[in-house]
Fold this sequence. Notes:
Layout: H1 5-10, E1 15-19, H2 24-38, E2 43-47, H3 63-81, E3 85-88, H4 102-115, E4 119-123, H5 132-147, E5 153-157, H6 161-174, E6 193-196, H7 199-210, H8 213-223, H9 225-231, E7 234-239
Parallel strand pairs: 1-2, 1-4, 2-3, 4-5
Antiparallel strand pairs: 5-7, 6-7
Helix pairs in contact: 2-7, 3-7, 4-5, 8-9
Keywords: Zinc
InterPro entries: GlcNAc_PI_deacetylase-related, LmbE-like_dom_sf
Protein name: PIG-L family deacetylase
Amino acid sequence: MEQRVTEQAEKxxxxxxxxxxxxxxxxxxxxxxxxxxxxxQRVVCVSATAGxxxxxxxxxxxxxxxxxTRRWEAAAAMAVLGVTDHRFLGYPDGGLAAMDPAxxxxxxxxxxxxxxxxxxxTFGPDGGxxxxxxxxxxxxxxxxWERAGRSGRLLHAAMTQEHLAAWSERYEQWQVFMTDERPxxxxxxxxALRVHLTGADLDxxxxxxxxxxxxxxxAVALLGMEEYRALNDEEAFxxxx
Length: 241
């Protein structure tokens, strides 16, 4: 019998969930974080940027306006998930790869040393969509985890082969990939964690995502709510190599 998400989350202990932009964490681990909070576990969520460049219409949404709005949206999403400790590192959206990694790695290592998590969640090396910010935060977290003495398990978000087989065409229509590269799906045996959200667990994740209207509205318009829910009902991770 497949375990409930609350039972799977319980095994993760204290969680630090580190991502590049607000909404990354909810897409990648919203169900897991919410279940952990419901269990009484500590969850610290970190966004490297405010996502101030995340628009196709920078005239209507200049960076200052969008960054401010996305912070509000993230606060609403965290309230839905129950996460009360959400931190912004304040780095420039779209600019992580150009930064000297020394300061952010040291800063993240200090956070890990302070929180002493049992589990760290972040992107894998491909960043999921090959976004340079996603890839950079993955590298920073890996280096910080090493510097902090490998505090807890480091888990990388991954897409399963089944998920890609079902949704790759829709991802292309959604234009989520940033390069000509595409993720290689993992088989179930390689997964360290995989949850399927149903019922109230999925409702809560979707409600959190919908709170981030500036980011999710185009996807919902493209897919329709039924497909959008189905696309987001799985969260999967592998052990960092």
